[in-house]
Amino acid sequence: MSKSALITGIAGQDGFYLAELLNKKGYKVFGVMRGQSNPKTEEIKKSLPYVNIIEADLTDQSSLSRAIEVATPDEVYNLAAVSHVGYSFKNPQLTVDVTGKGVLNMLEAIRLTGGSKSVKFYQASTSEMYGGVGDNMPKTGYNEESPFHPRSPYGVAKLYGHWITINYRESYGMFASCGILFNHESPKRGMEFVTRKISNAVARIKLGKQDYIELGNLDAKRDWGFAGDYVEGMWRMLQQDKPGEFVLATGETYSIKDFLTASFKEIGITDWKPYVKQNSAFMRPAEVNILLGDSSKAERELGWKRKVDFEQLVKTMVQSDIEAES
Ligand code: NAP
Ligand code: GDD
Predict the structure, then answer these.
(1) If you placed Cys at 115, which of 43, 119, 211, 271 could pair as Cys (CB 3.0 to 4.6 Å)?
(2) Is 95 a known active-site residue?
(3) How far apart are the C-alpha atoms of 262 and 206, rounded to whole Å?
(4) Catalytic one among 128, 185, 245, 266?
């Protein structure tokens, strides 16, 4: 009999790639969408026609219990979150409710419907939990043993989700794993994140639809990979004999300036400065200056390694936006 998987955050970037992967592997896929008339529902029905949509909200535990009863999943991937770091400073309590307490709601929904021993659970933890100020990062990057120092309401809420997942494993014997994922991007990335904001603006500048782009801090550095590679790692975590924590990263870090250089190069522009304005509205009250991940454990134990490199990622995103905007 085919396995069944429940994905929260199905309408997000990772929800899309994970649904595609699980469908190819023969899973019956259920996806949680929130809202009474979520405008993305029609889009999801078209792009992921095999997904069984369940209306539920991470802040409403009873709706999650119902989702578990409907899907009777072998695997639950908890991807839903308020996921934008900048937004989390403006809406910190909502962020705690969804990104933090929402994880507890999902775990309780599994436990109270009798799934503690039968359901495997994946929590979308994040490199934002390391935060830091840049000078406490190991030279080879953060790994599963590195201390946490979140720098945003989002990072703090995710840290709660991370530890409550580990706590449910230790308390109730649940198969509950956390993927500590570094930034991963794609043409499906939300427009509010810096990579897609840049790739889309570059496409529009090429097509004469836009003159410049406004950005915040250009010096921050991130370890950027391709989302399609990372969902493969999530799935592999739940195929292990034992649950655990795993870092997924590329092991390389680039600045926003590097991303601008590579993106503008795609449209034949070598000096991007005339096309970029800095706007303090996009600065954060506290910044994570640099992120670099060490995914040796995932390579060793999951046989996972990223396939797409930085240049390929930028190229794919810019070309996809040129096509979409043409
Ligand atoms: P995303 O595109 O922002 O998707 C998040 C999804 O969560 C959205 O579809 C959103 O629904 C849904 N959601 C928000 N509030 C909800 C609620 N109250 N109830 C139910 N659903 C709700 O994020 P992503 O990039 O795919 O990332 C997936 C997960 O991995 C997130 O938890 C994120 O924090 C984490 N993560 C991401 C990265 C990364 O670089 N992408 C790295 C590390 C960890 P709507 O579509 O209706 O808004
Ligand atoms: N969004 C955004 N918009 N970021 C900007 C801008 C801008 O106009 N200008 C500069 N930046 C800088 C941010 O200050 C940050 O240092 C960097 O670009 C990356 O910002 P985002 O793309 O918003 O991603 P993030 O690193 O803050 O968070 C993403 O990655 C995390 C994993 O490390 C999100 O996907 C999180 O959900 C995820 O956990």
Answers:
(1) 119
(2) no
(3) 14
(4) 128
204 lines ligand 2 (CB under 6 A): no
Best probe residue, ligand 1, of 79, 95, 317 (max atoms within 8 Å of C-beta): 79
Burial of residue 88, with CB atoms counted within 10 A of its CB: 0-12 exposed, 13-18 middle, 19 or more buried: buried
Nearest to 106 by CA among 97, 28, 243, 180: 97
In the residue annotation, 87 being an active-site residue is answered as: no
Ligand 1 midpoint to CA 323 (Å): 25
How confident is the prediction along the chain (326 residues), in pLDDT tens digits per residue?
899 999 999 999 999 999 999 999 999 999 999 988 889 999 999 999 999 999 999 999 999 999 999 999 999 999 999 999 999 999 999 999 999 999 999 999 999 999 999 999 999 999 999 998 666 799 999 999 999 999 999 999 999 999 999 999 999 999 999 999 999 999 999 999 999 999 999 999 999 999 999 999 999 999 999 999 999 999 999 999 999 999 999 999 999 999 999 999 999 999 999 999 999 999 999 999 999 999 999 999 999 999 999 999 999 999 999 999 99
Token pair for 123? 């929590």
- Judge contact between 65 and 112, C-beta under 8 A: yes
Nearest CA to ligand 2 atom 19: 194
Residue 50 annotated in active site: no
